[in-house]
UniProtKB/TrEMBL annotation:
It comes from the Eukaryota. One of its GO terms (biological process) is DNA integration. InterPro entries: Homeodomain-like_sf, RNaseH_sf, Transposase_5, Transposase_Tc1-like. Gene3D superfamilies: Ribonuclease H-like superfamily/Ribonuclease H (3.30.420.10). Residues 71-133 form the Transposase Tc1-like domain. Pfam families: HTH_Tnp_Tc3_2. This is Transposase Tc1-like domain-containing protein. It comes from Oncorhynchus tshawytscha. One of its GO terms (molecular function) is DNA binding.
Amino acid sequence: MVTCKETRAVIIALHTKGFTGKDIAASTIATIYRIIKNFKESGSIVVKKASGCPRKSSKCQDHLLKLIQLRDRCTTSTELAQEWQQAGVSASARTVRQRLLEDVLVSRRAAKKPLLSRKNIIDRLIFCKMYRDWTAEDWGNVVVSDESPFRLFGASGKKLFRRRQGERYHQSCVIPTVKHPETIHLRGCFSAKGVGSLTILPKNTAMNKEWRATFPNHPGTVW
């Protein structure tokens, strides 16, 4: 609690005349004892200057920064600092990140989801409405099947290397690639009764209608 200079002077004057903290009812007891303690230590009623740098932005400016970030989630902290400067706040990208962390806005890698067209959305909605009344017993008669491709040469995902400057194309820091790598497709299935067998298709052969016809159809198979 911050008290004005006049109030602190009155409290000290009453204290020097023998009044206790409980007798001085101008403020809370904790504040009174703190003022008396500071006076005994420094001999002055002037409030000590707070340590550390003063905050560069107000709550209103912090809220503006949050709105700018929510308007475009991909904006970097450096770009935010430039936009914030137009609002009168001269701050570094690090300060921007600290303000966003106070609002629990942390930087994370974007999640990937399939792009749905209007037709995809309608089809999924129809599917959900069609089977929304199914019981656990009904779903127990369903076999879910899917297939996935696997490259035989080279990794399809990202791989990190630790290298020094100038070693970007060093043999130990590169992944060899080919234009048309050999690929195999694996098909598996599962149901309420357990996991089914895994089928390996010939190299460079994808699942199509002809291959699906070779697998026995279950009444409740979902491809």
